[in-house]
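Hi L.,

You mentioned the student needs an example of a multi-chain input paired with its predicted structure. This one should do, with 522 residues in total across all chains.
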Amino acid sequence: MTKQKILKVKNGDVNSAVNDFLGELLKSGKLSALLVPQNVPSKKVVFPVLISDPNKLDANVFAPLLPVSTAKMISKITKFQPSDKPIGVVIHPCQIRALIELVKLNQANLNNIIIIGVDCLGTFPVNVYADFPEKKNPLDIVIDDLKSNNNKSEQYLRSACIVCNEPVPINADIIIGVFGMDISKEILIEAVSESGSKILEDLKLDSAKDLKKREKYIKDLIENRTKKLEAFIKEKTKNSDIESLTNFFDKCVNCHNCMNVCPICYCKECLYDSSVFDAEAYKYVKKSESKGLFKMPNDSLLFHLGRMNHMILSCVKCGLCEQGCPMNISLMDVFIPTAQNAQKEFKYHPGKDSKEKVPMIVYREDEYVEVGEK
Amino acid sequence: MSDEKKNETKDFEPKIVGFLCNWCSYAGADLAGTSRIQYPPNVRIIRVMCSGSVDSMYILRALLEGADGVFVGGCHPGDCHYIDGNYKARRRMVLLENILETLGIEKERVWIRWISASEGQKFADTMKDMTDAIRKLGPNPISKKWNI
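Structure written out for the whole complex:
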């Protein structure tokens, strides 16, 4: 039961229109709290903030920034006990997918969680956003691009966002839409689920009339991005061999930050953080003697390949690992191609359906019968 | 082929790490031994309780530490002592091979085979086949790398 409403924008100020709308939800008591990307006092960055007082709301939902995984924050809130009061979460499409994966992995609970997805305009690396080199602020750059159909923001976008072909939320209860809308005048508010339409019920919003322009815009955008994604994968897997792979991870200091920021990596104690790989001094010397030398810290490639094997089927290609890497290793170059190929093999679309199980815990007797037989 | 490479392949004895499940493949290997069936000594056998307990980390670690091949042996599908361990091992192997292929690492160095406790001959034949195949592939290129 899709309900499409229009949120009027006054004086071209997208942000205050969205703030009014979100504030209304809080004031009406339909939501007892709201997790939104909100400007920090210095306005340098936006972070997810759980707001219960509508007067403190200073949301910036279209800010091109994803400092931490919002899905992980929702996991933090709901992991021990599902919420007994309705909480709205304003969240990027990739993070909704990550959230659904966390639900499958029993790390989050969607009871009383109202997912408010936003059309994603792409995000900049945190440092670029915080010390933005232009006079305009980052939000205006992406909004201007959207209005004029330009691509000026692409130079700042994270590589994961440039090739993202899922910029429109799926599995949301409510969608705040800007693609294909005349955003100096109006924004789309769409209730996708039943709980979403209940929330929108008494709000004084006009119904949307003609959304053909939006549909076409989204279709073109996804087509365009899919082409970019395919070209990216082709480019990055053209010369893949062990030589280029080891060179690729040369800068890795084994800090495991890619794992810490990854929305999917949820293990309390990661195998690779444990002492499994520690050994007595004589063993290190022995290892050195086998090749004549031994690089430290050890096992960084093993860590990346092992982690990849554990999480790649649920990888939502959000690129937070790359953003979190202190050595600026372009991790998307290997994670996007491997994720794409592995998910294709298992016909698995992470984040699509919370009822589906992750591929590694299920099996069918009649599948892959050729494996293990000559 | 350079002279050096020729010598290398001629004298090359592959090192294979074998993870064998306690209930089938390990017993199969045992049978091969007690039946005095000859097979190449290139495989170093590690007994595990189930092929489903072989995390891809074990296989990757063996490869990265310089093993020329990794063998995983489990019960025939449907015969798993723990009902479905080998079905899960099968999926895991498909995933591992897919990842290795994307990254350009030779997936031919990783074998999984179903060998029951009564198949001593099959175990010996499989070891012979695998040793020959790995000998043809040559030494694992990772074994020369130290920046891993």
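You could point out the following to them. Chain B has a mean pLDDT of 93. Chain B touches chain A through 39 residues (CB under 8 Å).

Best wishes,
N.
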